[in-house]
Amino acid sequence: MELRLFASTGVDLPIVGQGTWNVPEHGAELSEAKRALQRGIELGMVHIDTAEMYGSGRAEEIVAEATAGVSRDGLFLTSKVLPSNAGYEGTLRACERTLNRLRTSYLDLYLLHWPSAHPIEETMRAFEKLVADGKTRFIGVSNFDVRELQAAQAALRTERLVCNQVLYHLRERGIEAELLPYSRAQNVAIVAYTPFGRGRFAGSERGGILAKVAAKHEKTMRQVILNWIVRDAAVFTIPKASKVRHVEENAGAAGWSLDAEDVAAIDRAFPMHYDGTLATL
Ligand SMILES: NC(=O)c1ccc[n+]([C@@H]2O[C@H](COP(=O)([O-])OP(=O)(O)OC[C@H]3O[C@@H](n4cnc5c(N)ncnc54)[C@H](OP(=O)(O)O)[C@@H]3O)[C@@H](O)[C@H]2O)c1
């Protein structure tokens, strides 16, 4: 799996990782979802994204179960505190619960899931304490626009935000207007969530363009979609796949590049629209 320097961390991270929202929680589908996570790790997709919100904590437990046989330092585990649980004491307590469910003594990255009514200064103070106490190596945010990101950055004294996890896919390119240039300049990585955009791409004229690009590179449309997302050095992505064959396909999105002609054709088919607000799910 292709690696790339993750902002200011000094860590090389796989450009395609693994998400865990809506991971199946029961029966044969759960068993396959765990096998899919394990297969992804074998293929180098060691950046695993979860959150206390997902399955009310169950997704974190499933990550722990799936990774039980994997050496901890071979993984990059990200989780997120719910805005309603944020603030100083709330964040510290939420992180403790997350660590217990993940059965680990530290996170690699801890994020505030979206902007919170708790003062950002309090949550950032807790984040800095968690780094100082060795409970997380790095900190970041999610669903923050430029103004919110600046406020969070200004609230920090000793640490830096290393990433902002945001919605980004072919039909939702708004971050390219402001957030991406700002993040690049500030050396804050973008982690693109919902990279497939819940859309069907085959069958339409626009899907035809993706199919053509895919055929040219002997890749699939899904691989083209993910490769397009990570074409910018500041952008990483975390598709969620609970099927082994899906994970294997997604792993093939890395290690090659679209050329300028492909990017121009995709640009024409999926133009950028921006109404001045950050799109979220
Ligand atoms: N920070 C936030 O607010 C936020 C919001 C949303 C998501 N996220 C994170 O981002 C991750 C990804 O986003 P997402 O789960 O919303 O959407 P996504 O990754 O764009 O799409 C997931 C869907 O695509 C399917 N899929 C994956 N690979 C496939 C393939 N190769 N062929 C066919 N289907 C494939 C999956 O099916 P199977 O599962 O059946 O394989 C699943 O139904 C989440 O899991 C979560 O970790 C963060």
Write the layout of secondary structure elements.
Elements: E1 3-5, E2 12-14, H1 27-42, E3 47-49, H2 58-66, E4 76-81, H3 88-102, E5 107-112, H4 120-132, E6 136-142, H5 146-154, E7 161-167, H6 179-186, E8 189-193, H7 205-217, H8 221-229, E9 235-237, H9 244-251, H10 260-269
Parallel strand pairs: 3-4, 4-5, 5-6, 6-7, 7-8, 8-9
Antiparallel strand pairs: 1-2
Helix pairs in contact: 1-2, 1-9, 3-4, 7-8, 7-10
The structure holds NADP nicotinamide-adenine-dinucleotide phosphate.
The site of NADP nicotinamide-adenine-dinucleotide phosphate (NAP) has 23 residues, from α9.
CATH class: Alpha Beta
**Tally of individual helices:** 10
As for the CATH topology, it is TIM Barrel
- Number of self-contained structural domains: 1
Give start-end ranges of low-pLDDT stretches.
Answer: none
Structural class: alpha/beta
Overall residue-averaged pLDDT value? 96
Structure, described:
This protein has helices at 27-42, 58-66, 88-102, 120-132, 146-154, 179-186, 205-217, 221-229, 244-251, 260-269; strands at residues 3-5, 12-14, 47-49, 76-81, 107-112, 136-142, 161-167, 189-193, 235-237. It is of the alpha/beta class. The protein has a single domain, classed as TIM Barrel. The strands form two sheets. It has a seven-stranded parallel sheet, covered by helices on one side. Strands 1-2 form a two-stranded antiparallel ribbon. It starts with a strand and ends in a 12-residue tail after the last helix. The mean pLDDT is 96. NADP nicotinamide-adenine-dinucleotide phosphate binds at residues 19-21, 49, 113, 142-143, 165, 193-196, 222, 238-243, 246, 249-250, 281.
